[in-house]
Amino acid sequence: MRGNPEAHAMVAPGTLRAVLELLADVPGEWTPIAGGTELMVAHAAGRPCAAKLVSLWGIPELRFIHSIAGYISIGAGATFRDLRAHVGIAKHLPLVAKAASWIGSIANQSRATVGGNLVNGSPAADSSPAFLVYDAEIELVSVRGSRRIPYSDFHTGYKRNAMAPDELLYAVHIPLRFARHRQYLRKVGTRRAMAISKVALAATAILDEGSVSEIRLAAASLAAFPARLYQTEAALLGRSIDARTIEAAREAMLAEAKPIDDIRSTAEYRRRVGVNLLEEFLLQLRLEAG
Amino acid sequence: MSDRHGTIRFCVNGENRAVQVPPMRRLLDVLREDLHLTGTKEGCGEGECGSCSVRMNGELVNSCLVPVLQTEGADIQTVEGLAISGALHPLQHAFLDCGGAQCGICTPGMLMAATQLLSINPRPNMAEIREGLAGNLCRCTGFKRIFDSVIAAAAVSQDHSTEQAAHAR
């Protein structure tokens, strides 16, 4: 049963300030909508969709990519096409560029925004694992001011996050200090184009004299929200990559991953493929370290 | 149409249009039902199949996922905007010549996705064509003839763009 457009109010105030004032007016009353690649699908399917929507599309203050003071800052309104077209992202944040290239189709990438992907909070969100292993920070704004939190603290449960009802996701800030890191991102879906992940794994790591001196691992679809795999990281930190370490890391990840059965895959498949991706990364890491 | 709704103004295929419809109404429905531009087709209605692809401000979009309020001031091109005074676009010729269209439901979307691709990359290789059309599903052709059509059109498209620009002046 399709949604009825008459049942929705929708406004486009056109400036960030006006949007924030509307959100502050009666907190929780208005739901922001950017490119609509999530909310319009819900609406089309007749799934409950916010009755009052405030459009963020076309607000220039939200659509930017800056490189300042050791960070690349991505406005919440930047589309995945914007990310793919940005030279600095291709150079410094290859995992973000890669994730952007496999989000839906060209038509989805020209409308879907970074802010929408993160606020929607799907466990399978394509951009999330990359942002997590790059230590991204999230900037939230409201009429009360702005605040920055680690992205790893943003998701708090299934489709729940740390935002107050009057807040808007303003930008994602990523520190540029991963040039020395070995980087990995792989998504497993039903086909190359358009598929939503069954499971995805991202990693950044440094090997110093054969042992792991830094490692960040993050997965999509292995928990209720995209998340770092801290226990698996702990099983690797300070170790050399040998058969025993790989086995210990696999065991840690099997214990840490909490996937579910759903329409796209099973928990068992996700767990097994997830640890295989981890092993693939570790073997590459060992090989590249020579 | 109704007075209860504000007026939304945009440009479709070079022509200024104004509609008074609910702001959440899909661009697809506005094109087909309010403006009677029925070349744009509805397939899945959820952004998976690309049948409703149109170009909006030079970007490819699924018109089933665009609330019409967000088209205020936009420049929209639909399949009806490809031919010039009845003369088919090189892509349309190529689809005819190469058998790129069968039942026809996906064809307008394929044409718009291919137009978008060629506007950015006038001489795409096969991998680039596959990526450019990855969001457009066809259940008849097996895709090969569509890809062949795009290759055939790429050779002549640039001439047509020049002609189109001249026509617009």
The largest sheet of chain B has its strands arranged as: 2-1-5-3-4
User: What integer value in Å does the Rg of chain B equal?
Assistant: 16 Å
Number of helices of chain B: 5
Main CATH class of the largest domain in chain A: Alpha Beta
Task: Specify the overall morphology of chain A.
Answer: globular
* Helix proportion of chain A: 25-40%
CATH architecture of the largest domain in chain A: 2-Layer Sandwich
Largest interface: A-B, 32 and 32 residues
Contiguous uncertain segments of 5+ residues of chain B: none
The percentage helix of chain B is: 25-40%
Q: Tell me, what's the shape of chain B?
A: globular
Number of strands of chain A: 14
Features:
heterodimer; A: 290 residues; alpha+beta; Uridine Diphospho-n-acetylenolpyruvylglucosamine Reductase, domain 2; Uridine Diphospho-n-acetylenolpyruvylglucosamine Reductase, domain 3; Enolase-like, domain 1; five-stranded antiparallel β-sheet; 11 helices; B: 169 residues; Ubiquitin-like (UB roll); DNA polymerase, domain 1; 2 domains; five-stranded mixed β-sheet; globular
Word description of this protein:
The complex is a heterodimer of chains A (290) and B (169). With 290 residues, chain A is α+β, with helices and mostly antiparallel strands. Chain A folds into three domains: 7-55, 2-Layer Sandwich (Uridine Diphospho-n-acetylenolpyruvylglucosamine Reductase, domain 2), CATH 3.30.43; 61-175, Uridine Diphospho-n-acetylenolpyruvylglucosamine Reductase, domain 3 (2-Layer Sandwich); 182-289, 2-Layer Sandwich (Enolase-like, domain 1). Chain A is built from eleven helices and 14 strands. In chain A, strands 4-5-10-6-7 form a five-stranded antiparallel beta sheet. The model of chain A has no long low-confidence stretch (mean pLDDT 94). Chain B has 169 residues and is of the alpha+beta class. Chain B folds into two domains: 7-81, Beta-grasp domain (Ubiquitin-like (UB roll), Roll), CATH 3.10.20; 90-168, Orthogonal Bundle (DNA polymerase, domain 1), CATH 1.10.150. In chain B, strands 2-1-5-3-4 form a five-stranded mixed beta sheet, with helices on both faces. In chain B, strand 1 (7-12) and strand 2 form a beta hairpin. In chain B, helix 2 packs antiparallel against helix 5 (144-168). The radius of gyration of chain B is 16 Å and the shape is globular. The mean pLDDT of chain B is 92. Chains A and B meet through strand 1, helix 2 and helix 6 of A and strand 4 and helix 3 of B.
